[in-house]
Amino acid sequence: MASMLMHTFRIVPTNVKWAAKLNLRLLCSASSTQSQVKSSTKKTLAKPGLKSVVLVEGVRIPFLVSGTTYAELMPHDLARAALKGLLTRTNVPNTDVDYIVFGTVIQEVKTSNVAREAALGAGFSERTPAHTVTMACISSNQAMTTAFGLIASGQCDTIIAGGVEFMSDVPIRHSRKMRKALLSFPRAKTMGQKLALLGKIRPDYFAPELPAVAEFSTSETMGHSADRLAAAFGVSRREQDEFALRSHSLSKKAETEKLLKDVIPFKVPGHHTVTKDNGIRPSSMEQLAKLKPAFIKPHGTITAANASFLTDGASAVLLMSEDKALAMGYKPLAYLRDFVYVSQDPKDQLLLGPTYATPKVLEKAGLTLNDIDVFEFHEAFAAQILSNMRAMDSEWFAKTYMGRKTKVGVPEMNKFNCWGGSLSLGHPFGATGCRLVTTAAHRLIAGGGQYALVAACAAGGQGHGMIVETYPQK
């Protein structure tokens, strides 16, 4: 597939025109953090027979580069802080919360059900059930839609969904040979049997199995996949750096203008109170151009600056049935509406989840691309975003791989990730989904829009799309 894509996009005559148009859009949209398009009121997406699910509030502790201020903590510490921050901001009685579900990717073995441990630590009743889900970078998306199903079906009225990731301390395993020997040791009854087992241990047994952000099915790191995708779609290094610079510039502007309303302070034991993300670093094209390729050397285009960085962080959202929220006196931020999950080839289409999810969720909701006022897409790599844009703008790709008669279409850049994204804010794998949805809700309110489309790719060639509808502000 990759070779076919490379061949095809090398001969598409509109390639240069597309890149020129996108560069113009990037330059124009980087000057404003809010959408310039305010939609008129459209239809609502309420479903007969289902309870409407509302986002009452969403919070996150600051997202920090791994190995910095959070380094001595554990995942449940971060999740607990997000939960307590949500309780403080909403004043919801913890006894009113029916259920808690969190997403995470790299599990700490001591707290494998991190949702339960964080909930107990945050002061929730031991009678409040909690479970943890994992779906790579869309783990907290899955947590939210799990909660959505429980509320819409009438099983629950109030659920906290969230996500956490802690890359400062990930499990490093002994080699399988050493694990086998250690697991056999308790079964040795006599001293002779124990000494015999010890005698079988060889020096190479002590080599650890180091973790890697790689696909199990292909053994390829996501960075390599992004580099190949960029080559297949003809996305240049300069385009990627321009998009990364846009992300950092918009994040910094949004932070300065206090638009990142979901960020809550976190007093880190033994440290100062953390109040803002520490990965936002606007630079210049000249500085970005000096960085060397990070994955495919020396000719790759993915660098440390145009890829999201390893991040520690946690997020949480309070979801309720609309009736429950209003009965408790809350003014919701938004409705959660239709959503889809997609899967495709994990080798050559690993990062194209948004391309596949966008038309499906729009069609499910009865909307078009033009109906969307706010786009919030996860930025794993600048190459991933730009490759998705090209796939969405390609009639050939739509017909060849998606079974569609026409192309998906490209979001307007003055509606797209206008407060920055994962490239600059950070990407704690399990926590990003809640940030996307909460940001989308706040952007809708700030810009007077009605519909937002949230989309993300994930390891395994999976993806997610969701429609968020602003709550009437009258």
Describe this structure in words.
The chain contains 16 helices and twelve strands. The protein is an alpha+beta fold and about 475 residues long. A hairpin with a 5-residue loop joins strand 6 (about 265) and strand 7 (about 275). Helix 2 (about 15-30) runs parallel beside helix 9, helix 3 (about 75-90) packs across helix 4 (about 115-120) and helix 8 crosses helix 13 (about 380-390). The longest helix has 20 residues, at about 235-255. The protein is globular, with a radius of gyration of 23 Å.
Q: Give the mean pLDDT.
A: 91
Could you tell me the radius of gyration in angstroms? 23 Å
What would you call the structural class?
alpha+beta
Q: What is the percentage of strand-forming residues?
A: 15-25%
Distance between the termini: 51 Å
By DSSP, the count of extended strands is 12
* N-to-C SSE string, H for helix and E for strand: HHEEHEHEHEHHHHEEHEHEHEHHHHEE
Q: Sketch the major β-sheet.
A: 10 strands, mixed
Assign an overall shape.
Answer: globular
Proportion of helical residues? 25-40%
Number of helices: 16
What is the assembly state of the chains in this entry?
single chain
Low-confidence stretches: 7-18
Topology diagram in text:
Elements: H1 2-11, H2 15-29, E1 53-60, E2 64-65, H3 75-90, E3 99-103, H4 114-121, E4 130-133, H5 139-152, E5 158-165, H6 176-184, H7 191-200, H8 222-233, H9 237-256, E6 266-267, E7 273-274, H10 285-289, E8 311-321, H11 322-327, E9 334-343, H12 353-365, E10 374-377, H13 382-392, H14 395-401, H15 422-425, H16 432-447, E11 451-458, E12 462-470
Parallel strand pairs: 3-4, 3-5, 10-11
Antiparallel strand pairs: 1-8, 1-9, 2-8, 5-8, 6-7, 9-12, 11-12
Helix pairs in contact: 1-8, 2-9, 3-4, 8-13
